[in-house]
Design a protein that fits this description.
- This protein is α/β, with parallel strands linked by helices and 621 residues long.
- The protein contains 22 helices and 17 strands.
- Helices cover 43% and strands 13% of the residues.
- It is globular.
Length: 621
């Protein structure tokens, strides 16, 4: 393995060229780096002609066999927490459902925090075998954990990412703890630095890619954000937002749930750094970072199994007791963590407005497991929601009928599947959400012959997947819209319900959570560095990912055209030379940005036979 700048130095010394890339000065301070970001030549971004679809365009995803198409990478997966990998515990869906198979079948290592806190002492990575893979649960430093988790992650970043500045709290010390924990995790991951790639998850770990890079880990790194990403004027309210965004550009691949999130991030780069993305590719002094949309899904086959699965006697009794409250009456269901981003209070207000005009028309089952109960803002929200529910029940309820049945209990996916199926309306109205898989779970649990109707916030990521001809889309900040949608859903004819449901279910089945995982890993694989020694003729240059392949092909075609022209035709030969020169420079400009990456170079680096002695492009630099 050879570092790029070493290979380039060798090549330029041999050719007599003196303008190859210089090794980056690692002592550059933040102000200098800011200036460097602002001064990156525009043409470098404009030359990244190929790559993921434009962030402003949502590409339709074909149905695929995820197992067959996922690359055979030995991954390191890193998230704040890891799945329990306990067959006796109910599968909770989401991240665990997506990543457990990746780890167990592919031999990945999954790193996250344990329930215990440590003293910050660095120890060998505590790997535990699980299937073909391994799991490492780290004892994060007790000194920094409160500021990292409750402080910066959940009191500063979480409300900012959901565009709720009024909920933001935090301190400089919280940010320091956040960075310290990320650095700690990076040092722990150094034990597995020779794996094929690193796949990092969620807002707790925004700067982890930079920490890995600073340690000298040069494998491809990808990041996936499970929350929204806000507009530039919102993210700038976050302390050290520039430093955070710059650190994110140390990842090779940044994944977002929706076009809205991706576009907001790209707009933030433009606003705060003057950086433009071209076809989803951003070029900085580190190299290229690809921005891409990966809408997370569910496993509909698994949901069918949940519906058929036996519940424990205790959970069966709990489900039966809840359903007894509704008997044969229609009811709506909401399932949310008790979090102020979920809009439960506005939903309750919407039901209150509906019952004033249509008394006793429908009731609501609201399941809201407590969340971050030790955080003051969450306790205040819990009290606020419970007061609102009590007011509705007191105003509209009778001795025989209660409008809202409310519980903070948690349920297994199998139990939730039964409750979803019994409810004629699914109400998913967060103020802002990354995707909200409850929306897709509700649809997957429905009876195809008599499906319910989904009322969905237009600010949930799922609304980018389900349009107004499928779900009933509402502004969650306007209770009157929620009330009107619930009323419409409750009275919707069977034929329309089936048409809407079938369209949503087709989408759910065409792109599952396993397709999502495979797509992420496949795109991460494109960041691996290789040198096509039998196709490219200059030591130290090659491509870093498939996004640069069209640039290579364009140059190869221009070179072939040049070689085919009779030297006697001087004018035509000169024109072809200029075309080849431009194609070469475009390719070289993108490749030269990868100067500190590891390359697999062949032992024999001699030029290929047949190359002209004085070739176009040689010595141009």
């Amino acid at each position: 393995m050879v570092r790029i700048h070493d290979a380039l130095d060798t090549a330029t010394s041999a050719s007599g060229s003196t303008s190859g890339p210089t090794q980056r000065d690692e002592t550059v301070d933040e102000a200098a780096f800011d200036q460097h970001l602002d001064e990156i030549p525009q043409e470098l971004n404009e030359q990244a002609d190929a790559g993921p679809s434009d962030p402003a365009v949502s590409a339709e995803v074909d149905c695929r066999d995820a197992v067959n198409q996922q690359p055979d990478l030995k991954l390191v997966v890193i998230s704040n927490r890891v799945a329990p990998f306990d067959p006796n515990k109910p599968q909770t869906g989401g991240l665990a459902a997506a990543l457990e198979p990746v780890v167990q079948r592919s031999g990945a290592v999954w790193i996250g925090s344990s329930e215990n806190r440590g003293d910050g002492t660095e120890r060998p990575l505590p790997l535990v075998k699980t299937g073909a893979g391994e799991v490492a649960r780290l004892e994060l430093p007790a000194k920094d954990y409160p500021g990292y988790y409750r402080g910066f992650s959940n009191s500063t970043l979480w409300p900012a990412l959901h565009s709720l500045p009024g909920q933001m709290l935090g301190s400089d010390e919280d940010y320091d703890s956040y960075r310290n924990i990320n650095d700690f995790i990076a040092r722990a991951a150094f034990d597995v630095r020779d794996r094929d790639g690193f796949w990092v998850h969620d807002y707790h770990l925004l700067p982890l890619g930079a920490a890995l890079h600073d340690l000298g880990i040069e494998r491809p790194t990808g990041f996936f954000l499970h929350t929204p990403w806000p507009a530039p004027d919102m993210i700038e309210r976050v302390p050290n937002h520039r430093e955070l965004m710059k650190s994110m550009l140390k990842y090779d691949l940044l994944g977002f749930q929706t076009n809205w999130d991706l576009n907001n991030f790209a707009a933030g780069l433009r606003t705060h750094f003057g950086l433009e993305s071209k076809d989803g590719v951003v070029t900085t002094e580190r190299g290229q970072t690809r921005l891409q949309k990966f809408p997370i899904g569910i496993d509909p086959k698994q949901f069918a199994e949940y519906l058929a699965a036996d519940l424990s006697p205790a959970e069966q009794e709990k489900v039966s007791s809840l359903l007894q409250n509704f008997k044969d009456a229609k009811f709506a269901i909401g399932v949310d963590r008790l979090d102020y981003t979920k809009g439960i209070d506005k939903r309750v207000e919407g039901l209150d407005q509906l019952l004033k005009t249509e008394p006793h028309s429908i009731s609501l089952l609201q399941i809201a497991p407590s969340s971050r109960a030790d955080v003051e803002e969450y306790q205040k929200y819990k009290d606020h929601v419970e007061r609102a529910i009590n007011n509705v029940n007191n105003e509209h309820g009778t001795d025989e009928w209660t409008p809202i049945h409310y519980t903070n209990d948690s349920f297994s996916q199998a139990a939730l599947a039964r409750l979803y199926r019994a409810a004629k309306i699914g109400v998913v109205t967060p103020l802002r959400d990354g995707m909200n898989l409850v929306a897709k779970e509700y649809v997957a649990a429905q009876d195809p012959q008599d499906p319910g109707v989904l009322v969905l916030s237009k600010f949930a990521g799922a609304a980018e997947d389900f349009d107004e001809n499928e779900a009933l889309l509402v502004d969650p900040n306007h209770p009157e819209e929620i009330a009107a949608a619930i009323s419409k859903a409750a009275n919707m004819p069977l034929e329309e319900r089936v048409t809407r449901w079938r369209s949503m279910m087709d989408k759910i089945e065409s792109f599952t959570i396993h397709d999502w995982s495979a797509d992420n890993v496949r795109e991460l694989d494109k960041s691996r560095v290789t040198v096509p020694a039998d196709q490219f003729h200059r030591l130290g240059l090659g491509w870093t990912n498939e996004a640069q392949m069209p640039l290579f092909r364009r140059h190869a075609e221009a070179l072939a055209t040049y070689n085919e022209i009779d030297p006697a035709d001087a004018a035509l030969k000169e024109a072809a030379f200029e075309d080849e020169k431009k194609a070469y420079e475009a390719l070289e400009a993108s490749l030269i940005q990868t100067q500190d990456r590891l390359w697999d170079l062949p032992v024999d680096t001699a030029p290929i036979d047949g190359r002209p002695e004085q070739e176009p492009g040689a010595g141009l630099d």
